[in-house]
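TICKET: design request
STATUS: open
ATTACHED STRUCTURE:
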């Protein structure tokens, strides 16, 4: 394991093996100068690979000094940065668990909006006549100070509709974890999944245990890994759920690759209705992260005219960009 992570050239093998053996020897068997002599003999062979500061230290004779040893910085390996750029479809089981933990640590939120309700403020555009009248009654004179009101700020609701058809199966586990984190962090949020039908899983993913939440969500989904009829799923959402969940300027996230086997004209109509019912309609496509991707599928071509933001969602970096966008909506 140490060879795999620390060595990069064949010339380093002999030096590493000797140093490894010396490290694990018993103290009585270890000669103090043996490793230093080995480094001196091997320095000419690996000189291009050793930093200049280390070469100077090895060239000087060893002597005792009261000065503190100089700390030489070396570049280190950051696994989180590598995972941030790796496509979700290429993750191993261990890497997928690490990515899910990183998603849970991210800062998720939705931008604030001004409501019609007013609150007391030091400055504002409208006078708070009620407070001014109370002040005058308390003081027994005409109000001497102006009191102001301003609109309250409230987070916009968030609605997520995630594709769990066969073409999205390699991403479904990650996206369910993503939905679980969103619904746990954001109080006003709703979660739906769709393949050939629409299923609401808000209640299931709000369980405190992630394993229990995903287990209940999987049990509620009856079209997992099947075909895709986005237009029919959106029609069900528009007619049955819009008035319940798309209130107070909600933001809608659609997570799908756009492969649709249903009526394309119906998809366009329902996208138009959905876009007019929400504050912002964001389409997240995991295939958009590929440099060679082109929106050629019928579903994507029918939906794009009604999408406010068309974004990739294939790795951690894309989710970080999404988190920034959600917090800066206007």
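STATUS: resolved
RESOLUTION: sequence designed for all positions
ATTACHED SEQUENCE:
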């Amino acid at each position: 394991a140490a060879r795999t992570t620390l060595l990069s050239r064949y010339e380093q093998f002999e030096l590493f093996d000797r140093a490894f053996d010396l490290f694990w020897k018993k103290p009585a068997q270890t000669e103090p100068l043996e490793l230093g002599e080995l480094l001196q003999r091997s320095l000419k062979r690996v000189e291009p690979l050793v930093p200049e500061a280390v070469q100077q230290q090895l060239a000087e004779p060893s002597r005792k000094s009261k000065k503190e040893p100089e700390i030489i910085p070396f570049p280190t390996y950051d696994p989180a940065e590598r995972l941030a750029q790796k496509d979700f479809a290429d993750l191993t089981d261990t890497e997928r668990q690490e990515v899910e933990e990183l998603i849970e640590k991210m800062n998720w939120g939705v931008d604030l909006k001004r409501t019609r309700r007013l609150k007391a403020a030091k400055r504002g555009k409208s006078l708070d006549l009620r407070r001014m009248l109370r002040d005058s009654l308390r003081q027994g004179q005409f109000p001497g100070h102006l009191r102001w009101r301003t609109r309250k700020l409230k987070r916009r609701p968030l609605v997520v509709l995630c594709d769990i058809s066969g073409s999205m199966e390699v991403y479904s586990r990650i996206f369910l974890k993503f939905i679980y984190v969103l619904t746990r962090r954001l109080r006003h949020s709703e979660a739906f999944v769709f393949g050939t039908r629409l299923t609401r899983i808000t209640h299931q993913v709000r369980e405190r245990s992630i394993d229990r939440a995903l287990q209940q969500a999987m049990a509620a989904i009856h079209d997992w890994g099947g075909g895709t009829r986005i237009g029919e799923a959106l029609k069900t959402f528009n007619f049955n759920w819009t008035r319940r969940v798309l209130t107070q300027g909600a933001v809608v996230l659609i997570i799908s690759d756009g492969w649709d086997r249903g009526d394309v004209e119906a998809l366009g109509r329902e996208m138009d209705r959905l876009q007019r019912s929400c504050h912002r309609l964001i389409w997240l496509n995991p295939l958009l992260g590929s440099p060679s991707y082109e929106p050629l599928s019928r579903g994507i071509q029918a939906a794009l005219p009604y999408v406010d933001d068309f974004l990739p969602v294939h790795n951690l970096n894309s989710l970080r960009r999404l988190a920034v966008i959600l917090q800066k909506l206007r």
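CLOSING REMARK: Strands lie at 112-121, 126-127, 148-155, 158-163, 189-194, 198-200, 251-255, 280-285, 309-312. The mean pLDDT is 81.
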